């Protein structure tokens, strides 16, 4: 029958739901539930129609919320699109099934966490790298874009994400699931750049899996790298740092609690780790987690089988060998780590609690452990060392630094390490161990 308001109002519920179809607009109907609820719907065959075409049905709205005129107009639009070969209901259902950003990140964790560039391109990320990457994505991206469909993210969304993270909108400091632990998330420009870089990798993965057609990060107007010159220490600043380490060693190296008060624990391992950062130019965890099997004191080398950049051989300057020999003489027989943890079987990880006191005493606000590595590289360049030898000292993973492992003897590299760290070693007080031997 023809659907009029009077017909709709007079329609009564039955034991089972039933549909009254409109004779003037085929495919448009009113469904009446046993409860008495009346709902407008539309039904058609997709793919241009035909006996074998899939049947589609969509709810338009409940009578009383949607008027007859509104419902019939919507039905006309859907049926017209279907007649012209479209499938509006199928497209809407497909849209509803589209993966959202938070689900895409979960899938990236399962299938896509691989190194994007360099010698290890395509290989799985290191556990720590993977953990930090996913933490940034979940702490910054999910709160801002997690509920959005991945295919709907635009360049503008990426630019807004960058601004919001840089402004600290995702920053938080709250209790974590661990006993007495806290989850501290900081924003800022540096965090925003890393988050955008990580999200670009996620969308590249999604593009390869045909989940999205393009990577919105690629065309976004955001600064993905920090072009500023890195901070490094002058020799006068290294002297101040050395005096601070000596003072803390004399007093007993103590960390600071959250209120800035000294902790009762005394441990000199953090001081020796800091000295080795400066004397080797190694990355932070390469020294903190250093194992004795990686130390070759006879040849003056550190041999890392599996680092951030793969297998790496680093020449040791004489002062670093001197310090490591001293530590070896005091190490327990059979010890795995150069700096073992106070409890358990792991390595010592307490430098971060002592570092703020070190830089405070040295009057070096804002200085980070990574700047010590950069200081070694800067000193090497200042001494006139070639970039190949500087790369060998620092273990850089690029074509020039990689070539040194195959074509340059280790002795010249050790001499380069001596020259690079001579000023640093003197500033730290290693005057008696300044030559390789």
By CATH, the topology of the largest domain is: hpI Integrase, Chain A
The secondary-structure class comes to alpha+beta
Biggest sheet features: 4 strands, antiparallel
Question: Assembly type of the shown chains?
Answer: single chain
Reading off the top of the CATH hierarchy, the class of the largest domain is best stated as Mainly Alpha
Can you tell me the number of structural domains? 3
Number of helices: 16
The level of helicity is 40-55%
Task: Give me the CATH architecture of the largest domain, please.
Answer: Orthogonal Bundle
Number of strands: 9
SSE run: HEEEEHHHHHEEHHHHEEEHHHHHH
CATH superfamily of the largest domain: Intergrase catalytic core
Strand arrangement within the widest β-sheet reads: 1-2-3-4
**Broad shape:** elongated
Radius of gyration in whole Å, from Cα?
33 Å
Low-confidence stretches: 399-409
Approximately how much beta-strand content do the residues carry? 5-15%
Distance between the termini: 104 Å
Average of the residue pLDDT scores: 83
């Amino acid at each position: 029958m023809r659907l009029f308001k009077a017909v709709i109002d007079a329609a009564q519920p039955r034991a089972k739901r039933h549909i009254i179809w409109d004779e003037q607009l085929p495919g448009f109907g009113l469904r009446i539930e046993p409860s008495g609820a009346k709902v407008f719907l539309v039904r058609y065959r997709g793919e241009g129609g035909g006996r074998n075409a899939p049947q589609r049905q969509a709810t338009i709205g409940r009578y009383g919320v949607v008027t007859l005129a509104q419902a019939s107009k919507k039905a006309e639009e859907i049926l017209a699109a279907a007649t012209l070969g479209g499938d509006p209901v199928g497209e809407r259902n497909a849209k509803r099934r589209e993966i959202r950003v938070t689900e895409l990140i979960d899938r990236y964790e399962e299938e896509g966490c691989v190194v994007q560039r360099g010698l290890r391109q395509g290989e799985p990320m290191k556990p720590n790298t993977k953990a930090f990457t996913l933490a940034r994505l979940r702490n910054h991206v999910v709160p801002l874009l997690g509920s959005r469909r991945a295919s709907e993210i635009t360049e503008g969304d990426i630019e807004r994400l960058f601004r919001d993270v840089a402004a600290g909108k995702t920053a938080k400091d709250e209790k974590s699931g661990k006993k007495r632990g806290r989850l501290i998330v900081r924003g800022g420009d540096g965090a925003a750049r890393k988050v955008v870089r990580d999200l670009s990798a996620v969308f590249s993965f999604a593009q390869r899996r045909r989940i999205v057609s393009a990577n919105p990060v690629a065309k976004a107007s955001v600064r993905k790298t920090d072009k500023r010159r890195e901070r490094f220490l002058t020799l006068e600043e290294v002297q101040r740092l050395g005096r601070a380490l000596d003072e803390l060693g004399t007093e007993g190296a103590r960390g600071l609690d959250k209120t800035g008060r000294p902790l009762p624990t005394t441990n000199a391992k953090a001081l020796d780790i800091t000295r080795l950062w400066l004397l080797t130019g190694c990355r932070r965890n390469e020294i903190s987690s250093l194992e004795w099997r990686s130390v070759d004191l006879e040849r003056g080398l550190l041999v890392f089988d599996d680092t951030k950049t793969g297998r790496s051989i680093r020449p040791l300057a004489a002062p670093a060998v001197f310090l490591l020999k001293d530590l070896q003489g005091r190490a327990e027989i059979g010890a795995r780590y150069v700096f073992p943890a106070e409890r358990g079987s792991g390595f010592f990880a307490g430098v971060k609690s002592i570092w703020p006191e070190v830089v405070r005493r040295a009057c070096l606000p804002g200085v980070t452990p990574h700047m010590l590595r950069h200081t070694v590289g800067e000193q090497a360049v200042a001494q006139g060392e070639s970039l190949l030898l500087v790369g060998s000292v620092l273990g850089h993973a690029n074509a020039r630094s990689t070539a040194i492992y195959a074509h340059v003897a280790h002795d010249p590299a050790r001499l380069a390490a001596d020259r690079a760290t001579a000023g640093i070693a003197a500033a730290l007080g290693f005057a008696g161990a300044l030559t390789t031997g």
